[in-house]
Amino acid sequence: MLAIIVTSHGDFARGILQSAEMIFGKTAKVMAVTLAADESVEDLANHYQAAIDDMQPVDELLFLVDLWGGSPFNAASRVVAQHPDRYGLVAGLNLPMLIEALSIQNQTLTDVIPHLERAAQGGIRHLDLRTDTGDDDLL
């Protein structure tokens, strides 16, 4: 089973994981790890290692981070670089992405990452009531 660390600046990761679990239910080997305002990238790397230790055994691990190039991303990329064949990293965390990750947690990292990229992009849509879509279920 793919282990997942959901990570962010502040409490976003905890909140989005809680929301996903309300919809999907609790799953094993999923943890939220957050970066507090007074913490460093090194502190966060230590939090990641503690989470990985808590989820053992971990064959494959996926980091879902809030922002490309931010501190959670930078700390996670260092961990992934140590195990590039077994660990992966996807930035741009959103709720559709996380729910999909939970639903395909039994698949391999190689299959999961491209699927999550599509799911996250597909979750970005807009409602335009100025045009008639013919979909009476919208309202």
UniProtKB/TrEMBL annotation:
| Gene Ontology biological-process entries | phosphoenolpyruvate-dependent sugar phosphotransferase system
Work out whether the entry's keyword set contains Kinase.
yes
In this protein, which residues make up the domain named PTS EIIA type-4?
A: 1-124
Pfam families for this protein? EIIA-man
Question: What GO molecular function annotations does the UniProt record carry, in alphabetical order?
Answer: kinase activity; phosphotransferase activity, alcohol group as acceptor
Compartments, as annotated in UniProt: Cytoplasm
Answer whether the UniProt record assigns the keyword Metal-binding to this protein. Answer: no
Instruction: Kindly give the InterPro entries that the UniProt entry links to this protein.
Output: Bacterial_PTS_sugar_comp (IPR051471), PTS_EIIA_man (IPR013789), PTS_EIIA_man-typ (IPR004701), PTS_EIIA_man-typ_sf (IPR036662), PTS_IIA_man (IPR033887)
Primary site of residence? cytoplasm
Could you list this entry's UniProt keywords, alphabetically sorted.
Cytoplasm, Kinase, Phosphoprotein, Phosphotransferase system, Sugar transport, Transferase, Transport
Name the source's superkingdom.
Bacteria
GO cellular component entries: cytoplasm; membrane
Give the NCBIfam families listed for this entry.
Answer: EIIA-man
Q: What PANTHER family does the record point to?
A: PTS PERMEASE-RELATED-RELATED (PTHR33799), PTS SYSTEM MANNOSE-SPECIFIC EIIAB COMPONENT-RELATED (PTHR33799:SF1)
What this protein is called in its record is PTS sugar transporter subunit IIA
